[in-house]
Design goal:
The chain is of the alpha/beta class and 260 residues long. It has a single domain (3-258), classed as TIM Barrel. 40% of the residues lie in helices and 15% in strands. The protein contains 11 helices and 8 strands. The chain has helices spanning 22-36, 53-60, 86-89, 101-107, 111-123, 136-140, 144-155, 185-203, 205-208, 224-228, 246-258; strands at 11-15, 43-47, 65-69, 95-98, 127-132, 168-171, 212-216, 235-238. It has an 8-stranded parallel β-barrel, surrounded by 5 helices. Helix 5 crosses helix 7 (144-155) and helix 7 (144-155) crosses helix 8 (185-203). The protein is globular. Bound molecules: 2-phosphoglycolic acid. Residues 15, 172, 177-178, 216-219, 237-241 line the site of 2-phosphoglycolic acid.
Length: 260
């Protein structure tokens, strides 16, 4: 099933990673807000570092610019030094990125941990943006489908099917992140189709058809139109380019290609 018959609102999320402290983040968010204006056909999400979330919230609240965290722990509170809980994000963020390949790679996050976090996000009314993606070695060895299958089945097990429209999956091939070497739109669409087929197996066609699946990895204003033109790709998770005014252009181009 292509999933293209279901109307899904495209979503462009900016993952600022470990950049922009509270003051810089507030000023940058204010400039994006002023430049973007209202654009109801594309959902826009900013994901600042945790410490900058309240400062960004102060300038974006009441607007249609949404906020997301880059990570969280699954417990509500307790002796977990350095962690951020879902309760702390509630009221500030609507989204939370989970299982980004940098979390998986540098901080040892497993599919099981990502799954516990995703379940916790649903339990706390936060919308997870769950990242999956293969390494270059996997792709070269024709293991992409196997790797994606393991990640999707492991990270996305046991979610409430009736609320699957709250889930966003970001397909981010690791070799494309921060390298300037984006996947082709066709390669991305092929893996997005695998992801959606897995979701159909796990949750049925109706629920799976509501999940938005983004592409991420070296998305720029120059290549976003190719991804957006594919009806099965529901937007993008943007890293480097989300730290520049280019982010506004990426959102505008998505709106122009996807239509109102
Ligand atoms: P990039 O990062 O756009 O800088 O490649 C994407 C991401 O890691 O989400």
């Amino acid at each position: 099933m292509s999933g293209s018959t279901v109307r899904r609102v495209p979503i462009i999320a900016g993952n600022w990673k470990m950049n922009l402290g509270p003051t810089e983040a507030r000023d940058f968010a204010a400039s994006i807000l002023a430049d973007l204006g209202s654009l109801p056909s594309v959902e826009r999400v900013l994901c600042p570092p945790a410490i900058s979330i309240p400062a960004v919230h102060a300038v974006t609240s009441g607007s249609d610019l949404r906020l997301g965290a880059q990570n969280m722990y699954f417990e509500e509170k307790g002796a977990y030094t350095g962690e951020i809980s879902p309760l702390m994000l509630q009221g500030l963020c609507e989204y939370v990125i989970l299982g980004h390949s940098e979390r998986r790679g540098y901080f040892g996050e497993t599919d099981e941990l990502v799954n516990r976090k995703a379940l916790s996000a649903f339990a706390h009314r936060l919308r997870p943006i769950v990242c999956v993606g293969e390494r270059l070695e996997d792709r070269d060895a024709n293991l992409t489908e196997r790797v994606i299958t393991t990640q999707v089945q492991g990270s996305l097990a046991g979610l409430p099917a009736e609320r699957l429209g709250e889930l966003v999956v970001a397909y981010e091939p690791i070799w494309a992140i921060g390298t300037g070497r984006a996947a082709t739109a066709q390669d991305a669409a092929d893996v997005v189709a695998i992801i959606r087929a897995l979701l159909v197996e796990m949750y049925g066609a109706v629920a799976a058809g509501q999940v938005r699946v983004q592409y991420g990895g070296s998305v720029t204003a120059a290549n976003i139109a190719e991804f957006a033109a594919n009806p099965d790709i529901d937007g993008a998770l943007v890293g480097g380019a989300s730290l520049k005014p280019e982010f506004v252009e990426i959102v505008r181009k998505t709106a122009a290609v996807k239509g109102a």
